[in-house]
Specification:
Helix content is 53%, strand content 9%. The protein is built from nine helices and four strands; from the N terminus they run E-H-E-H-H-H-H-H-H-H-E-E-H. A hairpin with a 3-residue loop joins strand 3 (182-185) and strand 4 (189-192).
């Protein structure tokens, strides 16, 4: 069975949802029968690729008209949920365009280290508030996850995996996915959001049972 997951690397709910899903999978008796593939989804594809310096708190204030204290409170609420899952979470982080990061994550998929790479990017971004939108920083993180730095640099210097990212996003549209995280179990059972571990367990059971 395969689980397809659409997410964005700057989405805190995706960070929490990934942890909860992985907890459900790690304790499932049929976990070895489940393959997991992460797909690209950009929360803000129009964000300028060369823009640097804005933080998530500043973005919330600009985009949604939140007062600074309100934006910090909103991030604090997500931080509490992340920390409850054993995750590190810095409430103020850099913001940037995620398209190139998604291309590198597709390289990770091709090289068999997608899960490790996504975990490393999540840790660097959410727990350490690193500037993962910088090519040098991203290459260092990817190398630590098992990718060849030269291969990462080649992807970032060109347009490799751009079609794969756009393909993921087009498929999300075809499936009616408008928000992330979104989990599709064997293209039969859909789960939206950072749901409790128990719900992910039930979805795994349901999808596996439908195969018999």
């Amino acid at each position: 069975m395969r689980v397809d997951i659409w997410s964005d690397v700057v989405c805190p709910w995706c960070y929490v949802g990934k942890a909860r899903f992985e907890k459900a999978l790690s304790t499932h008796p049929q976990r070895d029968e489940v393959a997991v593939v992460y797909h690209s989804f950009e929360l803000d594809p129009s964000y300028p690729a060369d823009k640097r310096g804005e933080t998530n708190l500043q973005m919330l204030s600009r985009k949604y008209g939140m007062a600074s204290a309100q934006a910090r409170q909103a991030e604090g609420q997500v931080a509490s949920l992340a920390q409850a899952e054993g995750l590190g979470f810095d409430t103020e982080r850099p913001i940037g365009n995620t398209f190139d990061i998604h291309r590198v994550i597709h390289l990770g998929l091709a090289d068999g280290v997608q899960r490790e790479l996504l975990g490393a990017v999540n840790e660097a971004y959410f727990a350490q508030a690193r500037q993962v939108f910088d090519a040098t920083v991203l290459t260092e993180i990817a190398a630590g996850a098992g990718l060849d730095p030269a291969a990462v640099a080649e992807v970032l210097d060109g347009d490799q995996y751009a079609d794969e990212v756009r393909g993921d996003e087009a498929q999300a549209g075809q499936l009616g996915i408008s928000g992330v995280p979104f989990f599709v179990f064997d293209m039969a059972v859909g789960v939206s959001g950072a749901q409790p571990v128990e719900l992910f367990t039930r979805a795994l059971d349901q999808a596996l049972e439908s195969q018999t």
